[in-house]
Amino acid sequence: MSLDLWFNNELSTIAKKIEDIDKELIFNRKALRLDGKEKIKEILKIYKYLVFPEYYHKNSKETYQTSTYFYENLQKFLLELRNQVKIIFEIIDDSSCYCKKIEEIIIGITNKLPLIKTKIQNDIKAAYFGDPAAFSFEEILLCYPSIEVISIHRLAHELYAMNVPILPRILSEYAHQLTGIDIHPGATIGDYFFIDHGTGVVIGETCIIGNNVKLYQGVTLGAKNFPLDNDGHPVKGIKRHPNIEDNVIIYAGATILGGDTTIGHNTIIGGNIWVDRSIPPYSSVYGKQISLNIKNKATINEKKRELSVSTDY
Q1: For residues 201 and 215, is the Cβ–Cβ distance under 8 A?
Q2: Distances from the Cα of 289 to the Cαs of 211, 243, 252, 273, in angstroms?
Q3: For residues 271 and 284, what is the distance between their CA atoms, to the nearest angstrom?
Q4: Among candidate residues 99, 97, 53, the one with its CA nearest the CA of residue 74
Q5: Given CA atoms 119, 121, 127, 132 in this order, what sign does their dihedral have?
Q6: For the chain, what is the mean pLDDT?
Q7: Which ranges of 24-97 would DSSP assign to H, the alpha helix?
Q8: Helix (H, G, I), strand (E, B), or coil: what is residue 262?
Q9: What is the DSSP letter of 98?
Q10: Which residues pair with 195 in a beta bridge?
């Protein structure tokens, strides 16, 4: 059967099947009004103008040192953010009662922005003083994925704490795609936080992290199990992820699980180990060293040559 003939015979049938499935979608069709990643990129671009104008804005230094610069960009940022929050509330709330909520959210995030900026600057300091390969603050800001993801997380977390639906997850998943670091916006992260290298790090929604904490690549701060409701579905809104107290270092590939697990302050967690119980402060936790089988290639090759000579008749 030729392709044209197959189209004539089958295309309308398949199109009807797709249409019927579409009618049964579980999604709210109003969600199609969300502007998606492109609008998020635009909002984050203005956000970076506010947080680090000297590196992300093309205007001269004199321009961004004026109060007018910050006022105008703050206004742009808040207007764009308000529009996205409004669309989201229209999706999930058919009433007209959300207008006051939106006002409270925008006022709240505006008041939080100076603190967010201070926290991000402290995160840069943590990276500089915690990584011997870092030679300047500028290098860290422009190159380190840890700073990219934590700067977005600081904003997403405040929106999450204000009970803004959907948008915090859009922000965090955009950062995840950029960096390979997955931080749920619900995670509470203290000051002077640094992820060295970063690829593959996962930090769950109910995780609470203290000050001066350093993680390496591949660390998982996750859930140990999921209590189920009467219908067999995971119970939502409960503590599932660990607490990491101040001054903790967690090396590459470590997995720490459970909402009742606390890693005490000033503790070191070694690489590639599984922790599902609380660890007291001032501890060092390492896995059992596996035995290494080391063979010397030069010795092996020499023996092969000797064997070859001895069997050469």
Answers
A1: yes
A2: 30, 27, 16, 11
A3: 11
A4: 53
A5: negative
A6: 88
A7: 36-51, 53-56, 61-64, 67-92
A8: strand
A9: H
A10: 215
pLDDT, tens digit (0-9, with 9 covering 90-100), for 248-265? 999 999 999 999 999 999
Q: How far apart are CA 247 and CA 126, in angstroms?
A: 11
Backbone angles phi, psi at 244, to 5 degrees: -120, 115
Q: How confident is the model over 274-297, as a mean pLDDT? A: 90
- What is residue 235's DSSP assignment? P
The residue written with tokens 């709210």 in the block is 28
Tell me the two tokens of residue 15: 């199109």
Q: Which two tokens stand for residue 51?
A: 């947080």
CB half-sphere exposure, 165, CA atoms < 13 A: 12
Q: How far is CA 235 from CA 160, 164, 205, 226, in A?
A: 19, 21, 14, 7
Rg (C-alpha) for the chain, rounded Å, is 26
- CA distance linking residue 46 with residue 78, whole number of Å: 10
> What's the rounded Cα separation, in Å, for the pair 259 and 223?
7
CA distances (Å), origin 294, targets 46, 297, 299, 300, 306: 55, 9, 12, 12, 21
Asked if residue 112 has pLDDT above 80, the reply is: yes
How many CB atoms neighbour CB 160 within 10 A? 22
CA distance 290 to 298: 25
Report d(CA 184, CA 202) in Å as an integer: 8
Identify the three-state secondary structure at position 60: coil
**Which domains are seen in the chain, by residue range?**
30-180 (1.10.3130.10), 200-288 (2.160.10.10)
- 214's enclosing H/E stretch is strand 214-216
